[in-house]
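To assess whether the prediction recovers the assembly geometry, we first specified each molecular entity separately, as shown.
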Amino acid sequence: MPEEPSHPEVRDAVKRLCKDFPDKYWRDKDRAKAYPGEFVQALTDAGYLSVLIPEAYDGAGMDLGAACAVLEEIQRSGANGAACHAQMYTMGTLLRHGNDAQKQKYLPQIASGALRLQAFGVTEPSSGTDTTRIKTRALRDGDHYVVSGQKVFISRVEHSDLMLLLVRTTPRDEVDKPTRGMSVLLVDLREAVGNGLTVRPLETMLNHATTELFIDQLRVPVDNLIGEEGKGFAYILDGMNAERILIAAECIGDARWFIDHATRYAGEREVFGSPIGKNQGIQFPIARAHVQTEAAALMVDKACRLFDGDEACGSEANMAKLLAADASWAAADMCLQTHGGYGFTIEYDVERKFRETRLYQVAPISTNLILSNIATHVLGLPKSF
Ligand SMILES: Cc1cc2nc3c(=O)[nH]c(=O)nc-3n(C[C@H](O)[C@H](O)[C@H](O)COP(=O)(O)OP(=O)(O)OC[C@H]3O[C@@H](n4cnc5c(N)ncnc54)[C@H](O)[C@@H]3O)c2cc1C
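The predicted structure of the complete assembly is given in tokenized form:
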């Protein structure tokens, strides 16, 4: 007997909510490159974006398994949780490293949805994956930092009130380790935009509300420094396990959507006088995608259990992300192939989900960087960079 999925009551409720946002809703938003604000509001009102915020700060205080269940079901319904998934986990940096005043000030409002903290600015045009080479610089001026620099691919900034920004507070060549000398600032976007921060939407192959940021002498109060100056890289790394596991759960949801749709279509579409699904050339790729997805889901569950048990889970989070992203991408390709020409038409939604799930080979961390981490940290092979 297959193991029952965790948090069945959460899954059922999310499925019901997603029924109010049918495929046409997502298709229209995708075509217009519009933000699915109504969906995000419905999730917020139902409390699903605050599941990870402790009850002491008015959140639901649930575990990562519950958050995974929410995101997996969203993706499996055909929706795209990327519009707001970061509202679930970006606050983790504030929760773990912020001071009491910051937590009291922001977390209850993030939990209620009065404030959105679903933007984080790490990536820069000239540094890419090599985060320690970021150039965005924050210089101390009395009780403010003055920040200048540039960021790229920063998502949801236009739909967020707050943003976590990774900056250099000490130049790379003045610290003993390149990972030191970076800091995390909480930027109030309601004040910053137009006062040192310019946000320029970036057109991409998917509807992801991603932007470029141009930062010129932006003043951020020192009170908005999260944790200690110079330790920001460690704080960002610290939040990555949750992000990777949650995105892996989304990939599992995507993969299951592709498998559901391919199976249904293969059973219905008749060519040469019988359903195409009768041919093993169609059956086997669907079966293989199912096998690959179930195996990946086991690793996502393992990473999640370790995380919820406060155990080290860096490698498992990486492996879960890699396996789940590979499973969803393989399932996407299989589903498109199963649909033949109709897979390319907009009304079947396969091409939209195909574009959406492709992202997870690259973001939030690319497949190569995960393999490099496993090779050097788990297997002890020499580092190539
Ligand atoms: C739609 C979208 C949304 C995003 N949202 C955010 C966001 O909200 N906030 C944020 O900070 N960032 C965001 N990102 C950025 C994302 O995290 C980066 O794109 C990703 O980390 C890769 O960085 P890069 O694009 O600069 O690629 P590069 O670092 O230039 O790498 C290019 C390719 O080379 C490979 N590569 C690089 N170095 C090595 C090596 N040593 N060995 C082998 N292969 C290597 C990479 O794996 C990649 O495939 C987003 C990106 C996209 C596309």
